[in-house]
């Protein structure tokens, strides 16, 4: 590409290395290693574990027992927690 642009009369800067990733820098500081960690196991890397499990469905079936009230009854719900910390309840 550089040869093509130069032949077309466009001035091209010299090659540069790719910018450093701040997450890799953080891992280096945390673990005391020299090169960026690319093959980190899911158990050792919470961000990777979060990204792998994001959007996977986890649900609990639960019952709301309101029978002690005058017109109370048992209601079945499905509790669906999200990885962002919110919880949704769906009537079952």
Notable characteristics:
single chain, about 90 residues, elongated
Task: Summarize, please.
The chain has 92 residues and is an alpha+beta fold. Helix content is 26%, strand content 21%. The model has no long low-confidence stretch (mean pLDDT 77).
Structure overview:
With 92 residues, this protein is an alpha+beta fold. The chain has a domain at 56-92. 26% of the residues lie in helices and 21% in strands. It is built from 3 helices and 3 strands, in the order αααβββ. The protein has a 3-stranded antiparallel beta sheet, with no helix packed on it. β2 and β3 form a beta hairpin.
Topology at a glance:
Elements: H1 2-7, H2 22-31, H3 46-53, E1 60-65, E2 74-81, E3 87-91
Antiparallel strand pairs: 1-2, 2-3
What structural class should be given to the helix and strand makeup? Answer: alpha+beta
What's the story with the biggest beta sheet? 3 strands, antiparallel
Q: End-to-end distance, in Å?
A: 60 Å
DSSP helix count?
A: 3
- Oligomer type: single chain
Mean pLDDT: 77
Number of strands: 3
Helix content: 25-40%
Based on Cα principal axes, name the global outline.
elongated
Q: What is the chain-wise order of helices and strands?
A: HHHEEE
Strand order of the largest sheet: 1-2-3
Radius of gyration: 27 Å
Spans where pLDDT lies below 50 across 5 or more residues: none
Beta content comes to 15-25%
